[in-house]
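Q:
Got a chain?
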Amino acid sequence: MSDNRQHQTIYEALGGTAGIRRVVEAFYPKVQEHPLLGPLFPEDITPVMDKQELFLTQFFGGPPLYSDQYGHPMMRARHMPFPITPERADAWLGCMSLALDETVEDEALRRAVLERLKAPAYHFINS
């Protein structure tokens, strides 16, 4: 991230709620079109997008919107019903990378976001 952003949270650097929403809106069409990921998601993706926005807001240092509405994230447990393979984790991160390329100008910020998401993406692998 550039010098003036060093002390900001990722949430702030992305532009707060509006920035998170832009990423989410760029991300989910890619997920839906992906042959490994699309079948895991419901046709009406809107509720998933809304939850993802709340989660990423909290995950990247914004207000605890997800916990306020749904309790502790427990993301690994919430993903257990779905067969998450290493290939699917890679695909998810690939879709996120494309979404970030479209929505975030700062290359260092894009890298920071992806780096922060790698641990949970691979932690969810259960198949």
